[in-house]
Amino acid sequence: MKNNELPHWLLQVNYEETNINNLANNQVPIKKVGTIKRKGFIDKTVKEIARRITEEYNAEKIARQPGLLQLINPRIKILSMLYLIIICNLVHSILSLVILNIWVLLVVKLSRIPLYFFIKRVWLVVLLFTGIVVFPSIFNFVRPGSPLIILMDFGHPFHLLVWDFPKEISITKEGIEGALMIITRVGASVSLAKLLAVTTRWNVLLKALRMIFVPQLFVQILEMTHRYIYLLVQTANDMFLAKKCRTIGRTSTKKQRGMIAGSMGSLWLKAYHLSEEIHTAMISRGYSGKMRIMQNLRINLKDWAWAVFVGVIGVLLFGGEKFFV
């Protein structure tokens, strides 16, 4: 081996622990294909915390983009999204709700929000949780109706424990329509709320809430909660990262539970003492309960144009529902 070359065993990506003789002979047994080393709870925790911090950073970057909704006054934006959410819950046409969801995706694109990011954050959650909730309603023993697909035919009704079943189990037209109605309605409502949160910086959003007469105490609680969440997340990340750097080898399940309990207790004590220190620091710096930001929130022509446009969209969806039913 030349002086400027690395040993063969240092170039191996996957290798197992071996003895000194094997290292000296450049003979290191490679891990068998298909064997996967499971990550410990510390690695998983640090990875999840880092992912959350990255998401918050990316959301702040999106809110600063020169997109369509980022340029709209936050007060107009809040009221317009609230108006559309109300319209969404009053509409009883699946086609109207589908059109609203498509319109939201168009606004997402014009606001320079990555579609993959938005769909993953909204529709993956909606389909997973809402879909599970409404899934039983597509069957005739939950919601009777016109059968579309007959799954089982028993020939006669029967009783099982506390449930009465018809002679056949089928998927009904009314059940499918009801499930689609709920999924599209929840998807549209969550999409509008997410769109508002992603395109508005947090401090500006809080000031806008205060300017539309949301109680000051509620706004202050939101402000401090948001600040504390990410401060404590960063603290937890430092704790687990320090623990990972000081841990050699595997840790037993009993010790892992003890470390988790100790970390929770330490984090709670730190949060308690930090709350007193922050309150004292805020008072000493003249905090009077009012949030002050440099951005001017005056309403201009483009804000009124957006308000009129959203109003027309809502009227068309609600008034044109009879043509879609």
Automatic annotation (TrEMBL):
Keywords, in A-Z order: Cell membrane, Membrane, Transmembrane, Transmembrane helix
Stored CDD domains: EcfT
Compartments where found: Cell membrane
Gene Ontology terms: biological process: cobalt ion transport
A Pfam family reported for this protein in Swiss-Prot or TrEMBL: CbiQ
Assigned GO CC terms: ATP-binding cassette (ABC) transporter complex
Bilayer-crossing regions: 81-110, 122-142, 301-320
Membrane topology label: Multi-pass membrane protein
Name this protein carries in UniProt: Cobalt ECF transporter T component CbiQ
Species name: Desulforamulus aquiferis
